[in-house]
Amino acid sequence: MMSDNIFQKIIDRQIKANIVYEDDRCLAFHDIGPQAPVHVLIIPKKVIATHDAITEADRDLLGHLHLVAVKLAGQLGLHDGYRLVVNCRESAGQTVPHLHMHLLGGRPMRWPPG
Ligand code: 5GP
What are the catalytic residues? Predict the structure, then answer.
């Protein structure tokens, strides 16, 4: 069940995480396996399993996640830039069935990603 996913457990404080931001709509915390000096996950509290499950009703929520990303990037010192990643479904690398935005920065990044 989606409510059993690991990020829901972090929201519910059943599992510990290094939380850097929280409000009524979202939570942000450091990734347990960082791929860059700064690697934060920004997640909605609403359970949305995959990016392609978003609807018109989520429009404001998604904008909010982006604004939180901008705020955190500034607070975490990513003044030279950063990368936002949303992996949608397994073949794109999604491993946790709860929509999340990766905020990565603090090192040079190449393109295209692997
Ligand atoms: P995905 O591969 O689904 O796009 O990203 C999932 C991310 O969640 C991975 O980068 C992984 O390291 C991170 N992750 C998985 N389990 C945990 C956990 O229990 N705590 C934290 N902080 N991050 C986790």
Answer: 100
Positive/negative CA dihedral, 18, 111, 68, 54: negative
- Per-residue pLDDT tens for 20-29? 999 999 999 9
Q: CA-based Rg of the chain, rounded to a whole angstrom?
A: 14
Q: Both tokens of residue 9?
A: 């457990």
- Ligand 1: nearest atom to the Cα of 18: 22
- Whether residue 113 has its Cβ less than 6 Å from ligand 1: no
In the chain, the amino acid numbered 79 is H
Q: Which residues contact 80 (CB under 8 A, 6 or more apart)?
A: 105
| Bridge partner residues of 102 (DSSP) | 41, 85
Residue 96 CA: nearest ligand 1 atom is 3
